[in-house]
């Protein structure tokens, strides 16, 4: 099939590349001339495991190409994907100007039947708005289809090539047929293509992300409670996750959800509900709890240092919002850094992939290390914000030598508690017992007086 993909951000590029991989001829179009030129020369603009191989293979075999020329890209395309940003507007509602703008441009150029597929996460009713744009500008027949993406950064290629399900919102049989043919190679293992109306499909995407964000948030609250009642969140997690109705996945407590999707989508769904005079109370609680959870680690640090971080220096491992990505959007690490700096501390950070992005954002506000051990130099404590594999089994003796102390605040529960006892570390993680060592016991006892409030 001949396909055009408008927008070569994260979703557009993964979609275009993975569609080319099953033999389709894909032209990706973007307004960013420099980015397009780079892609034409085989330079991939994002870090996503496995994508580079497919990207280069499909370019060299002439199934994948890039252009800034929209008219050329859509001329012969049977299906036109729109993978454009829907950033939150000032009031939290999704800004549809990119999507509706692209729809207007396309509507003025087409001369034959097209299926217009929206991949972006959009509020319910967007397909109708896109249809209205086409109706206003052209008499050429189009079908507007909602086809949300469920790609996780870090495993997006696998998610696209072997999806749990493909959701397609359309009532047009012609469009259904084309979409079924297009996705057939991806659902060969029997996972379903779910057809529904456009609005249900649009809502499915928001509901999925909001549900997952709620699941994480619930576990974060359980973890916080575990600390107060001296229970172990790992045990509770396994205890509830063994129930099929709950499931083992997505139950890991941490520093709150981040990234480019969950925060934006939860907020947009809540706003959408408000516009329909519905008070979606759970989502409001989820947003409030998540904001607090992002700095739970700094609360622990403040308690440990008795509320005074002036002149203290911290090593921070992990900047990306999760492992296997360089994406730092809404990353808990940013909130942690901000609060440490506000309290007069200094920070040296390391992330296996996120360094360039963080340097661009924070400049000389923090120091940067070339590897995880270098970050530890002169640190009063190590904070861990992302569960990269490379942090999972470090050389603890070397760490102690470099830091001159054994103090770790771990927002991702990377280490076995008994191991930390054996190594004599002070180790404060999320929803688990606090491991103290003799040198720090006094400070810890002081810090953990019940209900103690540390004023900043
Ligand atoms: C998400 C959805 O999973 C995907 O289907 C959608 O299309 C886009 O948004 P992504 O943002 O890449 O994907 O990340 P995901 O792996 O879902 O994690 C989201 C956040 O939840 C991260 O901040 C992660 O650290 C956090 N998380 C996840 C937890 O805190 N605990 C968990 O158990 C799982």
UniProtKB/TrEMBL annotation:
Signal peptide interval: none
Entry's EC annotation: 1.1.1.22
Pathway in which this enzyme or protein is active: Nucleotide-sugar biosynthesis; UDP-alpha-D-glucuronate biosynthesis; UDP-alpha-D-glucuronate from UDP-alpha-D-glucose: step 1/1
Pfam family, one: UDPG_MGDP_dh_C
Record field: catalytic activity: UDP-alpha-D-glucose + 2 NAD(+) + H2O = UDP-alpha-D-glucuronate + 2 NADH + 3 H(+)
Keywords, comma-separated and alphabetical: NAD, Oxidoreductase
Record has NAD as a keyword: yes
Alphabetized SUPFAM superfamilies for the sequence: 6-phosphogluconate dehydrogenase C-terminal domain-like, NAD(P)-binding Rossmann-fold domains, UDP-glucose/GDP-mannose dehydrogenase C-terminal domain
Domain (UDP-glucose/GDP-mannose dehydrogenase C-terminal) ranges: 315-417
Family stated for the protein in its record: Belongs to the UDP-glucose/GDP-mannose dehydrogenase family.
Matching NCBIfam families: NDP-sugDHase
Protein name, UniProt field: UDP-glucose 6-dehydrogenase
Species in which this protein is naturally found: Pedobacter gandavensis
Source species taxonomy: Bacteria, Pseudomonadati, Bacteroidota, Sphingobacteriia, Sphingobacteriales
């Amino acid at each position: 099939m001949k396909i055009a993909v408008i927008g070569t951000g994260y979703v557009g590029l993964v979609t275009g590349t993975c569609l080319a991989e099953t033999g389709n001829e894909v032209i990706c179009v973007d307004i960013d001339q420099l980015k397009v030129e780079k892609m034409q020369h085989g330079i991939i603009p994002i870090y996503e495991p496995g994508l580079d191989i497919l990207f280069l293979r499909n370019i060299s075999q002439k199934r994948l190409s890039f252009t800034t020329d929209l008219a050329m890209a859509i001329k012969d395309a049977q299906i036109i994907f729109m993978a454009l940003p829907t950033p939150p507007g000032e009031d939290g509602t999704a800004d549809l100007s990119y999507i509706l703008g692209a729809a207007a441009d396309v509507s003025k150029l087409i001369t034959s039947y097209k299926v217009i597929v929206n991949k972006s996460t959009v509020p319910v009713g967007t397909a109708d708005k896109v249809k209205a744009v086409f109706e206003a500008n052209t008499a050429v027949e189009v079908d507007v289809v909602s086809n949300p993406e469920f790609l996780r950064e870090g495993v997006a290629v696998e998610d696209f090539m072997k999806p749990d399900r493909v959701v397609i919102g359309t009532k047009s049989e012609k469009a259904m047929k084309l979409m079924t043919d297009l996705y057939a190679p991806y659902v060969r293992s029997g996972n379903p293509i779910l057809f529904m109306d456009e609005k249900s499909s649009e809502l499915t995407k928001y509901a999925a992300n909001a549900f997952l964000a709620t699941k994480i948030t619930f576990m974060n609250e359980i973890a916080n409670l575990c600390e107060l009642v001296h229970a172990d969140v790992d045990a509770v997690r396994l205890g509830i996750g063994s129930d099929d109705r709950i499931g083992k996945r997505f139950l890991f407590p941490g520093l709150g959800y981040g990234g480019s999707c969950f925060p934006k989508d939860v907020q947009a769904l809540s706003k959408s509900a408000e516009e329909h005079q519905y008070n979606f109370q759970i989502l409001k609680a989820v947003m409030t709890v998540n904001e607090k959870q992002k700095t739970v680690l700094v609360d622990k640090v403040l308690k440990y240092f008795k509320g005074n971080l002036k002149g203290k220096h911290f090593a921070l491992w992990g900047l990306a919002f999760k492992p296997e990505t360089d994406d730092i959007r809404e990353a808990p690490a940013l909130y942690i850094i901000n609060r440490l700096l506000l309290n007069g501390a200094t920070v040296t950070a390391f992330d296996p992939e996120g360094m360039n992005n963080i340097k661009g954002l924070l400049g000389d506000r923090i120091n940067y290390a070339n590897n995880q051990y270098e970050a530890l130099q002169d640190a009063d404590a190590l904070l861990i914000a992302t569960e990269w594999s490379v942090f999972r089994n470090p050389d603890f003796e070397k760490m102690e030598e470099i830091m001159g102390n054994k103090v770790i605040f771990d927002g991702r529960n990377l280490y076995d508690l008994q191991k930390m006892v054996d190594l004599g570390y002070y180790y404060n993680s999320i929803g688990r017992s606090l491991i103290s060592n003799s040198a720090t016991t006094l400070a810890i006892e002081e810090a953990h007086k019940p209900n103690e409030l540390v004023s900043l």
